[in-house]
Amino acid sequence: MKIASIHTSEFRVGLRTPFKTALRTVREIHDVLVTVTTTDGRRGYGEAPPTAPITGETIGSIRCAVEEFIQPALVGREIEDLEDTMHALHTAILHNTSAKAAVDMAIYDLYARSLGVPLYRLLGGNKKELETDLTVSVNSPEEMAADSLAAVRRGFRILKIKVGLQPELDLARIRAVREAVGSQIAIRVDANQGWSPAQAVRIIRGMEDAGLNLDFVEQPVKAADLDGMAYVRQNVSTPILADESVFSAADAMAVLQKGAADLLNIKLMKTGGIYGALQICSIAESCGVSCMIGCMLESSLAVSAAAHLAAGKRVIACADLDGPGLCKENPYHGGPQFLENRIVMNENPGLGISPKWVDETEEMR
After folding, report:
1. In whole angstroms, what is the distance from residue 144 CA to residue 125 CA?
2. What pLDDT, on the 0 to 100 scale, is given for residue 364?
3. Are 95 and 161 part of one and the same domain?
4. Rounded to 5 degrees, what are φ and ψ at 2?
5. β-bridge mates for residue 198, sequence order
6. What are the beta bridge partners of residue 48?
7. Are 209 and 100 within one domain?
8. What is the strand order of the sheet 186-190 is part of?
9. Quick one: which residues bind substrate (predicted)?
10. Residue 125 forms part of a structural domain
11. Residues 208, 324: one domain?
12. Same structural domain for residues 87 and 151?
């Protein structure tokens, strides 16, 4: 089964509410759909969001990378020769991790389908169900408290609270959320690089002194400031999660060697897909460190690939796969079921997901 062509297109999905972080404000998903077609007519699908503040990619750069660099390197290669095909993918162009991720997940989808198994089983796992948090955008303390309470009413038991914009309000924001949802709801805080090391220590200690009981704080300082993040970790009791600091296995090793984080956040759009994510999983396992699986602003297609990875690897201990829960609609059918805080894995082969405008019986063959 050889790769015959790789095609890109675009799609849009509105968000239930604007997504606001310390880095950006977004009102709709506008992503690239990648279709990998084999010589026998099978199709695998992948998705890439343009997340310029994090990966440096735009819609145009993703489509260019796939069509002008990745496609020529992969056409004619065997899906079953996965290692060779992945090496060709990841050496076809420098950086462009989201573009690579979309092609990567489509190839893994085709590979697992060729073997007749769900991808998560091929990756070695047997988790039938995952639990995800839901992200609460950064706003006034009062609005964030109301949004958090609405999430809890939808069934979410874990909240990821965005901060880092106007840091002087961050303690009040988390205090308001905790007072609104009570003590039984888990709270994770994500600063998206919005604090300096000194601010981070002061704010996190304030949250600790207030008894706000956080699961962890994600990426408190700039991605490149590993010394600063190590300083924060050494001076607070709350665990620190590295996100934007970790794109590759080499990044993961650097973070752990510096003592800059307690956990690592794996996102397929940073790692270039499942192939790179598995390398980070191996490093984390060897160092005795747990990982979280996260996502950018992605629909159920890309999040399905991330869910299969999480269900396949024991080292991935928690999930931030709320992309489908933020969307007004789902443009795909099949794949894992996203039931608010619950993700129930599919048992049909591969990712088991395809666009609603494509004949499902043809795609699942």
Report:
1. 36
2. 43
3. no
4. -100, 155
5. none
6. 32
7. no
8. 134-136, 158-162, 186-190, 214-218, 240-242, 263-267, 291-294, 316-320
9. 24, 135, 160, 295, 297, 320, 322
10. yes
11. yes
12. no
Check: CB of residue 150 under 8 Å from CB of residue 181: no
How far is the CA of 336 from the CAs of 180, 305, 320, 343, in angstroms? 31, 9, 15, 6
Q: Which two tokens stand for residue 149?
A: 């309470």
In which domain, by residue range, is 90 found?
3-117
Binding residues for substrate: 24, 135, 160, 295, 297, 320, 322
How far is CA 164 from its chain centroid? 20
Hey, which residues are catalytic here? 162, 267
262 φ/ψ angles, rounded to the nearest 5 degrees: -95, -25
Three-state secondary-structure class, residue 156: coil
Whole-number Å distance between alpha carbons of 242 and 354:
32
pLDDT in tens, 170-205: 999 999 999 999 999 999 999 999 999 999 999 999
Residues 147 and 86 in one domain: no
List the structure tokens of 134.
């839901």
Q: Rounded to whole angstroms, how far apart are CA atoms 332 and 167?
A: 38
Q: Are the C-beta atoms of 364 and 352 separated by less than 8 Å?
A: yes
Which segments of 220-287 are extended strands (E)? 240-242, 263-267
Contact 92, 21 (CB under 8 A): no
Annotated binding site for Mg(2+): 190, 218, 243
Please say if the pLDDT value at position 210 is more than 50: yes
Q: Please, what is the Cα angle at 317 between 197 and 304, to 5 degrees? A: 105
User: Which residues are bridge partners to 343 per DSSP?
Assistant: 130, 338
**Residue 295, token pair as written in the block:** 């996502």
* pLDDT at residue number 357: 74
What residues are paired with 38 via a beta bridge?
3
Residue 340 shares a structural domain with residue 235? yes
Q: Let me know if 4 is exposed, middle or buried by CB neighbors in 10 A (0-12, 13-18, 19+).
A: middle
- pLDDT mean over 104-117: 97
User: What Å distances lie between residue 343 and 133, 307, 325, CA to CA?
Assistant: 11, 8, 11
Whether residue 62 lies inside any domain: the answer is: yes
d(CA 289, CA 280): 11
Rg, C-alpha atoms of the chain: 20
286 and 214 part of one domain: yes
Token pair of 30, please?
């506008």
